[in-house]
Amino acid sequence: MTPQDNTNVAAAITYKLSPNTETLVLSHILELLKCNHAATSIRTRFEKCDKLVYRQPDKESGKKDLEFTVPIISPLVDSMKAYLAATFISTSSVFPITTAPGSEQLATTYNLLLDNFAQEFQWKRNLVLALDDSAVYNAMFVEATWKEVKVGSLTNETSPNGKAVKTKKVTKAGFSIKHLDPYNTMWDTTVTLADLAAEGEFAGYVEQYTRMGLHRFLLSLPEDKNFSFRKKDILDGKGQGTRHYYTPSISPENTTSSGSNWLSTLAGKPLSNGKNEVLTMYVRIVPSDFGITNVPNSGTPQVWKFVIVNSAYIVYAEARTNAHDYLPIVAGQPRESNLGYQSQSIPEELESLQRIASSFWSAEIASTRRLLSDRALFDPDMIREEDLRNAGETGKIPVRNKGIDKSLNQAYYPIPYSDPALGQRSGIANQLSQFGFVVTGQNQVSNGQFVKGNKTNSQFDEVLRNSDARQIVMALLLADQFFAPLKTILKSDLLQYQEPTTIYDFKTGQDITIDPVMLRDSKVMFEVNDKLTFADDELDAGELITFFQTLQSSEQLQQAFDLPKVLVHLMHLRGVKGLDAYIKPPPPPQGVVPQQPLAQSTDPNAIVDPASYQEAIAGALPPDQGGADVTSPPTA
């Protein structure tokens, strides 16, 4: 095997596997997936949660479909997702950097670089999707890694006709945060989700590609030594193995399929053999066990990345030499407990409430319909059935064969209906719906609903803060189990792989130089700009105003504190940017005459005020140069 250094990503090494090594690695990975018995049951639980959230009937449960499903779970899940999103990623910067006072410029450099990564790789979108998964499934997954992307770039050369500018392919590197579909994520279930990145043996995900999409994906890989000689066989789908991609069936109108064969031929040439599966796996292995001996420390466990197409071809193999030694797949479980994977999600815990409340509402609707409908008995000798069905609201019903001994009341008799519980079942259902707030710790106000009351503002704020208590616990768990390792990987990869570059800051209109050496030598701290603070720890606007008023009114405090620097530092912590543009230049040193006060009119007949002139230059010149003796302005 021949190693190939990737110059764009220092310390990342790709390898061309021998046929024997490829077979051993492929067998090992497929065996890991086969032994992951929990995947099937976990997928079933995920599908059940989706059906509860979207109020779709569960055909496999064998229970009777309800006429109406009360929306209890969906609003509570959405509120939980909104709270987590507002807590962690509602600010302009996802992971703002804080530094010691006086190092704001370094923090600005960091934040500008991270903001650039967040925009390029859509951090917020991917994190919102992951937080949505955490609220629905009680599980979330992202791939967090340094990534290379081949993009087009303009050059200064023009085409032969001079009408177009030539382009070229360049490699752009940065930190990527990618949301992973929980249905198609595979991981080591012998460890908890919180410990997956640090302690897990393997983790990966599977994606689907058409033939054209697979071709583009292969060309985007950093090197092609593992597939260039057999690309045609791979694209033609030869030797496909076990399929791992799973498509849940939530909506009855779902028409997608994992094995569709669209546009199979065109002009007699095959274009697609259906959907191709691309499995990306991060595995801890001992390289020497698989015949990989020409790598450093081949006899010790290492993290490797393998990309497998259709469970048959390893098209990419990379030795992950990250300093953090984590699997780059970070997982979280907001409702974590000592039950591990048996910890229930919000939909699972509220399933019985939603079903019972829906049963009451369905019975109420059915009873009301029966009360309004006309269920009756009729004599077919006197009234024909088609006459009853065709009669409109004002239609006339003919009566036939009415004998002398028969009356019209005998021709048609409405069956009386009485339901003493009519109107009461809806109240019971509404009371059951309130239990959803009890279970999740939310209330109507936190769900955006108006509630009448006579509380003062402080009392109302206290109730609202108490309603967030349980959600704060879940946010605290996510902060440690999910965002902490994510920030560790981000900081480590940034310091290890970032190359010298220049980024243009649109706010200041200046080019910011990114110096990796300076970044590595600096001491900075990632701080998620969250709201994980309790009432006793918060500094509200009134207290902040009192603080500054006290500073201004106390001469002793003014001597102890530099008020402008305190203000600038607080504003920097709150995310205010661009204050550097308003800093005054330092005063001129002693012995240098300030030019602005000495600027004279271009009119030679202008009169200069002696007093103002003396005040402008007094003390600017040392005494031995006659500065103190200047008492009159220069003559015209």
Can you put this structure into words, describing what you see?
- With 636 residues, this protein is α+β, with helices and mostly antiparallel strands.
- The protein is built from 20 helices and 18 strands.
- The radius of gyration is 36 Å and the shape is extended.
- The relative contact order is 0.12.
Identify low-pLDDT runs: 1-11, 257-273, 533-537, 597-601, 616-620, 625-636
Average pLDDT across residues?
77
First-to-last CA distance: 88 Å
* Main sheet strand line-up: 1-2-12-11-10-7-6
Please state the overall shape, judged from the principal axes of the Cα atoms: extended
The number of helical elements comes to: 20
Task: Identify the notable features of this structure and list them briefly.
single chain, 636 residues, alpha+beta, seven-stranded antiparallel β-sheet, three-stranded antiparallel β-sheet, 18 strands, disordered N terminus, disordered C terminus
Write the layout of secondary structure elements.
Layout (H helix, E strand, L loop, with lengths): L2 E3 L7 E3 L3 H17 L2 H16 L19 H16 L8 E2 L5 H17 L2 H15 L2 E19 L6 E15 L5 E3 L8 H4 L2 E8 L1 H10 L10 H5 L29 E2 L2 E2 L5 E10 L16 E8 L3 E8 L8 E4 L13 H27 L3 E3 L6 H6 L17 H4 E3 L10 H16 L16 H11 L1 H29 L3 E5 L4 E5 L1 H6 L3 E2 L14 H13 L1 H6 L2 H11 L21 H4 L11 H8 L19
Antiparallel strand pairs: 1-2, 2-12, 3-18, 4-5, 4-13, 6-7, 7-10, 8-9, 10-11, 11-12, 14-15, 16-17
Helix pairs in contact: 2-9, 3-5, 3-9, 9-12
Describe, in short, the structure shown:
With 636 residues, the protein is of the alpha+beta class.
